[in-house]
């Protein structure tokens, strides 16, 4: 079973990725939340181009996928669930997925709190529009650091291979969903965001206003933001009127074209968006 999962991991993840991309992209056409401001072809070419670049670099520079590393850790007895092997498999899988989700929340906060890491992460926030492809738009260095953090969590937790694959599929799927330019019925959104992050909930995080950018850090489970006081229900300007992006980078050539995106972390200085910058502040 373990060998079969590892052998089919790529197929499982690619099927889930492209399946979710098609579903959310189709729903965006039928039920758009906002009018886009930049050429969709231009943005999609860059945002999906960075996905293929990141995938190639991870394969080239890292010796294993997250699931492969989970198998490596299991063979050496690393981590809580590998040490306490008598724990029920179903419990180890569920607990590992929840712990990994919490780790991604903490990582996301860290990338906003440390100015050097914000330099990398601001490429994700510099997108001038907000749609399904924004959910896959991350700088290659951030992706590599994220993978190393994930490896460390897997090693400590002893997450089963099945849990890691489930988590990776959920992470990709929920990231594309909650970045979708989707208009959900308000009542449905209110119920759904009690459990998972919805597009309206996460869109607040992509506001040009720093105090809104530094809220709603969750990707999958919404409870972390409520639990740690980083939850903001709605943008002050409303979803249709709010401005997406960050103040420092408003030119489409830099924010929406692949070469500009890649050099963006190395341009300018870190301004007030980083949480621990002295000038950062705003409304509660």
TrEMBL record:
It comes from Sulfuricaulis limicola. Keywords: Membrane, Transmembrane, Transmembrane helix. It comes from the Bacteria. The keyword Transmembrane helix applies. GO terms for cellular component: membrane. GO terms for molecular function: iron ion binding; oxidoreductase activity. Pfam families: FA_hydroxylase. This is Sterol desaturase. The chain crosses the membrane at residues 12-31, 51-74, 89-114, 147-171. The lineage of its organism: Bacteria, Pseudomonadati, Pseudomonadota, Gammaproteobacteria, Acidiferrobacterales. Residues 95-230 form the Fatty acid hydroxylase domain. GO terms for biological process: lipid biosynthetic process. It is found in: Membrane.
